[in-house]
Amino acid sequence: xxxxxxxxxxxxxxxxxxxxxxxxxxxxxxxxxxxxxxxxxxxxxxxxxxxxxxxxxxxxxxxxxxxxxxxxxxxxxxxxxxxxxxxxxxxxxxxxxxxxxxxxxxxxxxxxxxxxxxxxxxxxxxxxxxxxxxxxxxxxxxxxxxxxxxxxxxxxxxxxxxxxxxxxxxxxxxxxxxxxxxxxxxxxxxxxxxxxxxxxxxxxxxxxxxxxxxxxxxxxxxxxxxxxxxxxxxxxxxxxxxxxxxxxxxxxxxxxxxxxxxxxxxxxxxxxxxxxxxxxxxxxxxxxxxxxxxxxxxxxxxxxxxxxxxxxxxxxxxxxxxxxxxxxxxxxxxxxxxxxxx
Length: 342
Description:
alpha/beta, 7 strands, about 30% helix, globular
């Protein structure tokens, strides 16, 4: 059995992502000050802890991400002796992936203690963008619906890449830009209509192209990002809002309005939501966009693209056709074509 004790670094490190590089620091806190923070992580942990006891009843979205990631890991024809479930919630993703014959021991990392206590062991508490692991510790790191709520996503991805062994695999799911678009619009419209102005009430999510570009920028080999959209039915807009808060998607922005929504504004938002997205059965629909990401820690054994001009065979020869210069103009018939007879 593998020992997980060797995975932990002697001290935490922080990463300067302005140049997409990694700089060691003697501090144990993040380098970003409050002015540059997007999310209030302390508030996020507090709110998530309040809903931890409901996670088993609200695991549908987590379960969908877990099943999809497990299927993608399964098709990789290799063994993963030591894996990490990062941002684990109650450990459903890790337990699903650990059932695969190709995966050995699984560790769990959660930012909220109340959730970490629900995970199988070994489990620890840490922020997703402040990892305590040594370089080259894991063969596989998976993450389900956690990375869209970190303050320093580039830094988190850099640390994930460094925590992977050479040719190790990273695979994750995060919410995409179209997730909860109906709820976002209903809240903004109701607040603007009744209060004379609006502030964001739902956390923003990244675009699939942004996630893919970021994987490449931080140094992952063979990065891939794709998206999937689900339409989920809820009993009411308030039931949807409760699920959003339970999954950490509520309003924890540092720039949020500190004043809670009034009952009148909330009721108006529900009216707008039901008018536009209600079902004949009196329920409502909600859109969830999942962005699935994967990348490999660089290794010399991986296939590398050829240098420009290094080809030894012409494409025209491979296609058994005649090569033409790009400057050659296409030829057109000099005689007009006769219309087909009817």
